[in-house]
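User: Could you go from structure to sequence for me? I need the amino acid at each position, not a summary. Structure tokens:
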């Protein structure tokens, strides 16, 4: 009889042989890896808000699910504020973006519906779809016509339910943006729903940091997801939905129903983070200037720009990618290598994130180190 964990060991060995074995490592060096785009996570502004919440006696834990005793006034205050801020009818607060995506796709699309998702959409959306009852199909990245064709083909084959179009507004590994206006037109044409994951655009793009879907706000067939652990510097996620869908998740969404509610203290903190971001546009302006500076430095190395604060440098080979990342880390810059299956095979890359945790001088030094590491690898 074999060892009960032999299959696990074999899988890890295969990952190591392909230079894809992951391990946890402490944070070190200048930040070019985090999603703390506006530098809020360690800011004095959020520390002050946290201290004020503690001084008011807000509980650190909720004590139960929202449907039991876990529902707190701070959850409801945040959700009301978020609905106004993002221009939606209602909002619902989740412990994380992963749980929010899982709940959304497992609960809202029904049997007989079709989810057409961008081929590069977040893993959490895939996991949610696997839990759900709707059919699903992948569409070519950022190709609105591919979404339209997939729905039209499904209709021709007898599909009668609701089509759901699922995309990210700003893609976390490529740094490019979805054609949201075109996708909204596709949703309208097919009486469908557009689901926009704003994870990496929230706080950074749009008026007041409302995201790239801000021009579509108020549409009856729009759902947006705004994570709170990236540019907002906190934790959790806000799902902005029509009231009927909020009620449906509260009644049918197992990831919501059976999860302990997020901390009321965190709900308080997220609400203040939204106010800080909306009230301090200079943070977004400063980040935009740093992005332009970083793009110019990368262009001098012959590397393309993405147009956002996420600047991928595609290397291709897994081992070479990790050697370059290691060289940058040894030089004092926290740049991480990203390998399959997070990105497609043959596209291993460095994911350089521009944040307010680094200035122009740090960007100059990092790109100099990058040029040297690429030449040596």
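Assistant: Here is the amino acid at each position, in order:
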């Amino acid at each position: 009889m074999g060892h009960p964990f032999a299959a696990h060991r074999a899988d890890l060995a295969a990952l190591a042989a392909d230079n894809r074995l992951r391990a946890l490592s402490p944070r070190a060096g200048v930040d070019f890896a985090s999603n703390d785009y506006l530098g809020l996570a360690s800011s004095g502004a959020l520390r002050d808000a946290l201290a004020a919440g503690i001084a008011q006696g807000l509980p650190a834990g909720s004590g139960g699910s929202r449907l039991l005793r876990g529902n707190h006034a701070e959850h409801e205050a945040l959700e009301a504020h978020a609905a106004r801020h993002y221009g939606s009818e209602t909002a619902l607060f989740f412990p994380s973006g992963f749980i929010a995506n899982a709940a959304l796709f497992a609960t809202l699309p029904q049997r007989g519906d079709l989810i057409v998702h961008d081929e590069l959409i977040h893993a959490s959306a895939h996991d949610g779809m696997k839990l759900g009852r709707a059919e699903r199909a992948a569409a070519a990245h950022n190709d609105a016509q591919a979404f339209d064709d997939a729905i039209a083909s499904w209709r021709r084959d007898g599909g009668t339910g609701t089509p759901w179009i699922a995309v990210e507004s700003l893609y976390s590994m490529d740094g490019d943006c979805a054609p949201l206006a075109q996708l909204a037109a596709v949703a309208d044409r097919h009486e469908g729903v557009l689901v926009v994951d704003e994870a990496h655009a929230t706080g950074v793009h749009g008026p007041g940091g409302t995201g790239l879907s801000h021009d579509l706000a108020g549409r009856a067939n729009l759902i947006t997801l705004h994570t709170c652990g990236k540019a907002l510097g906190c934790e959790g996620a806000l799902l902005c939905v029509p009231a009927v869908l909020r009620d449906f998740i509260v009644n049918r969404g197992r990831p919501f129903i059976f999860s302990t509610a997020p901390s009321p203290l965190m709900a308080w903190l997220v609400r203040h983070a939204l106010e800080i971001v909306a009230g301090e546009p200079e943070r977004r302006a400063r980040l935009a200037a740093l992005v332009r500076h970083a793009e110019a430095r990368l262009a001098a190395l012959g590397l393309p720009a993405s147009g956002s604060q996420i600047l991928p440098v595609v290397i291709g080979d897994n081992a070479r990618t990790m050697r370059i990342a290691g060289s940058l880390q040894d030089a004092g810059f926290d740049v991480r290598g990203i390998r399959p299956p997070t990105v497609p095979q043959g596209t291993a890359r460095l994911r350089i994130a521009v944040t307010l945790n680094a200035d122009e001088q740090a960007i100059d030094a990092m790109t100099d180190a990058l040029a040297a590491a690429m030449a040596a690898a």
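One structural detail worth keeping in mind: The CA atoms of residues 40 and 241 lie 26 Å apart.
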